Amino acid sequence: MSGGRASRVLPVLGCVLAVLALFGLARSLLAMTYLNLRFAEQVDPLSRAMSFYAFVDEGEMLSGALVLVAIATAALLTGIARSGVRLRARTAALFAVWCLALALCAIFPTDNSPRIETFAGLVHQIAGAALFAGLPLAGLCLARDLAARPEWEVTARTTRGLAIGGVAVALAYPIARLPDLLPWWHFPAVLDLRPVSGLVQRVLFGMEVLLLVVLAVRLLRISLAHRGTMPRAEPVSTR
Is 90 exceeded by the pLDDT of residue 216? Predict the structure, then answer.
């Protein structure tokens, strides 16, 4: 592809990928919001993990939402790379872990019990841990990559802030579940945070999706700006 043609195609591709990412993220948020409201009596949004939506009547919506987020992430990262940001191997690897974890959580449901009882449940637990830790770490790496490009500097700072917040909330979740992780240890009632562990998980997921939305909006704005500055083709004279 020639330089002139590439300069015209890349901004359009960036717009398409950004819109695709935003659509997938919005659709997944709507699905998760619906599940939280529709099945609040069956799955307590304060104390129970989102994984248990797999066992409600419309549980397939959970898997669909996770797959959409994975697709949106892949589209977004491709668009950012095409916009001129040089992504380090570590950044790409961490985002790949996040996408793979989303897919595994969608394919392998958790066990509908307090303990891991099946292979699918084990895979889900491992993937879930990688899922919630992976994106904040990937965001920290990506922020460093973005900072090297002037048009991404502000977004890099926002990404770093959201990623640091995500790391903090990701650490809070296992702390809230310590009585389950250490069943032989007697925890005082005041230290038993399981009644709010589901809320912590939902806050973390929301922060992670927000991070992706911020990146997608910036990619769209940069791509539109580049389209607006493209030189117009000179009309071909017929004389």
Answer: yes
